[in-house]
Amino acid sequence: MKDQAQTLDDIIHNDTIFRDGSLVLEAGCGVGAQTKIITRKNPHSNFISIDLSEQSLKEGEKLAETLKITNVKFQQADIFNLPFEDATFDSVLVCFVLEHLSDPMQALHELLRVLKINGTLITIEGDHGSTFFYPDSQMARRAINCQVVPQKQDGGNSNIGRELYPLLHAAGLSDIEVSPRVVYVDAGKPELVEGFIKNTFTAMIEGVGNNAVAQGLIDRADFDQGIKDLCRTTQPDGVFSYTFFKGFGTK
Amino acid sequence: MKDQAQTLDDIIHNDTIFRDGSLVLEAGCGVGAQTKIITRKNPHSNFISIDLSEQSLKEGEKLAETLKITNVKFQQADIFNLPFEDATFDSVLVCFVLEHLSDPMQALHELLRVLKINGTLITIEGDHGSTFFYPDSQMARRAINCQVVPQKQDGGNSNIGRELYPLLHAAGLSDIEVSPRVVYVDAGKPELVEGFIKNTFTAMIEGVGNNAVAQGLIDRADFDQGIKDLCRTTQPDGVFSYTFFKGFGTK
Questions:
Q1: Is the pTM of this model over 0.90?
Q2: Which residues of B touch A1 (CB under 8 A)?
Q3: What is the mean pLDDT of each run of 10 residues along chain A (251 residues)?
Q4: Could you give phi then psi for residue A46, rounded to 5 degrees?
């Protein structure tokens, strides 16, 4: 009756598996946080990991070197204007990227252009609106909104996870399968209490505080209380739940 | 890479399995909606299904008779004052009941009294605060609150799902495992679009409308718009997500 202990990587990447010999495009790799997972899970596939930021790519390259990962090439490129021929890749992976784009559909069309017929597109996105916790706290919810609102003002969408199915459908993919990947944390999962609630989610929200206060979205005292209430959910009687979504589709 | 098609029953009861020969108490069986599932999944266990309402029990008995279910006995009883000796049952199941109680801990203590040492308690509860959908709608969220608020006024808790771990822990159970059971619905799951979004969730919310309007919680027009917006999520580009929680613990 027991679940196996799961890490965040297991929850979102357990089935990020490519056929041996695949050429895979990872679009928007940043500093390689996902690259280091998927390249090692798929040692017999080759990856081209692109990002707009040269600086991020340098960090990704350094990481790959340190970890002795040899099946990836980092390359500077614009997701809206990819420097690849049509139908170059067996698979395309786009992870935590669409949420930042004002026109995710345009990016999907460009990604599909470079994907082979019958190739698979995989996309993984979070959904801040899926967050709930115990004890509940209005201030914590307001602090989370300090990331949601500015991201929306910048044309992004912190709640894009729930939209993956309609997006992939509208992009013209077939055999679409979207599934929720719930990171549910209680005291029975100590590694996620530290690793996810504290070091991942709350740290990320904490990072938007200065900007949100400067923008007048929230008072400093309220924001700090929200962060404190998020940390409160890491106590032994606390609970936290966040849902990522993962979509597969075939060109 | 594909999920198997799942019904709501699969999602919440796939692992409601008792050892052959078990005597199981189902507390708060109502009209037998869960009874008919669990008795047939466990043909070599015997069930005593209790409820406070004689009327509900009669309907449960009729249902069991129609379905030729013979391994259950229905009995009128109060969950706070059970007519059973200590340590009578191998397992106890309590499903969609704690949400209605102003003192769920008192009920858990009484259920644990009649459970044998090393016996298993299983509890399943919903969490209305886990609901999110696309397109999002403030009116739909307000309509859902028309069930949450009166239930709270009555001493219940529509968001109790997230509290199962701390509740089972405080009740003194060991080997506690709580897991989210997400009912995620998109157009790729047509049976859940009709069966869950429309006939289960929205129908349930629709049922509280008259009372909520009479109480002044919401205008009729706003409530109706909320219901319309919930129904809107059943369109081909709509998405709906609701999370039940299931907890196992050992006495």
A1: yes
A2: 15, 120, 177, 248
A3: 67 96 98 97 98 97 97 98 98 97 97 98 98 98 96 95 98 97 95 92 96 96 97 96 98 97
A4: -115, 140
The label of the residue with tokens 């692109």 reads A50
ipTM > 0.85?
yes
Interface probe, candidates B145, B173, B182, B189, chain A, greatest A C-beta count within 10 A: B182
Cβ neighbours of B186 in A, within 8 Å: 165-166, 178
Q: Does B61 have pLDDT greater than 60? A: yes
Q: Estimate to the nearest angstrom the gap between the alpha carbon of A152 and the chain centroid.
A: 17
Q: How far apart are CA A196 and CA A234, in angstroms?
A: 10
Residues of chain B that touch chain A, judged by Cβ-Cβ distance less than 8 Å: 1-3, 15, 120, 127, 129-130, 132-134, 136, 159, 162-163, 165-166, 169-170, 175-180, 182, 184, 186-188, 236-239, 241, 243, 248
pLDDT of residue A240: 98
Residue A232: CB atoms within 10 A of its CB come to 15
pLDDT band, residue B6 (cuts 50/70/90): confident
What is the pLDDT confidence band of residue B1, given thresholds at 50, 70 and 90? very low
CA of A173: how far to CAs of A80, A163, A168, A170, B184, in Å?
18, 14, 6, 8, 20
Residues 6+ apart with CB under 8 A from A198: A231, A234
Query: Would you state the structure tokens that stand for residue B229, as one six-digit string?
Result: 């917006």
Question: Which residues in chain A are contacts of B131 at CB distance < 8 A?
Answer: none
Q: Which residues of A touch B129 (CB under 8 A)?
A: 132, 136
Chain B residue numbers with beta carbons less than 8 Å from the beta carbon of A133 are 162
- Among chain A, residues having any CB pair with chain B shorter than 8 Å are 1-3, 15, 17, 120, 127, 129-130, 132-134, 136, 159, 162-163, 165-166, 169-170, 176-180, 182, 184, 186-188, 236-239, 241, 243, 248
Distance to chain B for A73, nearest Cα, Å: 26
State the Cα–Cα distance between residues B171 and A237, nearest whole angstrom: 12
Rounded to whole angstroms, how far apart are CA atoms B170 and B159?
18
Residue B180 corresponds to which tokens in the numbers above? 């989210």
Could you tell me the sign of the dihedral formed by the alpha carbons of A194, B12, B208, A180, in that order?
positive
